[in-house]
Amino acid sequence: MFGFKANLSTQDVLLQLKEEVLETMPKAGENVVMALDIKGAFDNVSHAAIMAGINNTNCGKRTHDYLRDFLSNRTATVGLGELRSDVFHTLCQGTPQGFVISPVLFNVAMIGLANRLKKIQGIQHAMYADDVTIWTTQGSLGEKQERLQEAATCVENYTKEWGLQCSTEKSELLRIGKHPTQATLEVTLEGQHTHEKNMIRILGMWLQSSRKCSHTISLLSKTAEQVGRMINRVS
């Protein structure tokens, strides 16, 4: 897990992908990356999931009780100008917005998922907030598909246990290789086939099936042109 942790950032995830996926290309076949997105993660994660994660950290009674009280019996009002609604109790889900500790609490809720993914042989994963990236580089395409399906099912089951859901619209597959296998790659998530793309975006970086960076260069060129025009207008 990389998000919201000291001395770790998106660059660490991208570096891991570079070393374990882009630099280990087989002469024939491909490495496969699967990018999964958890829908409305911070708003919908159950407080039970957070407390279950806290219970497994051995954080001590004082910290445990503080976090339990922090999440319990929260109230809110709705305001419009000087008008205010009556106070009501919020749902037992979601991390409170605007609090420094909220991202950490979400990480705690996801520890269980990270531990389950570690038990699946032949895959590697990186979790940053609500983005889960999974990849496999060993065996035939059929073996890779089986591993990815097991991982996708693992993520789907875990999220359902704690009131979450994977976004099938934002979940994608990418094959990267010099001479990729022509067979179809099928991984099912939430009852739907995960889309296979020629390029996917992971934490701001575009990965292309060809291993090239032409799309990124094209985007940078367009941005540079736009900035150049703006400078010309004001100079």
TrEMBL record:
Q: What name does the UniProt record give this protein?
A: Reverse transcriptase domain-containing protein
Record's InterPro entries? DNA/RNA_pol_sf, Rev_trsase/Diguanyl_cyclase, RT_dom
Organism equals Amblyomma americanum (Lone star tick)
- What PROSITE patterns does the record point to? RT_POL
Q: Which GO terms describe its biological process?
A: DNA biosynthetic process
Domain Reverse transcriptase, first and last residues per copy: 1-207
Record SUPFAM superfamilies: DNA/RNA polymerases (SSF56672)
What Gene3D superfamilies does UniProt report for this protein, alphabetically?
3.30.70.270
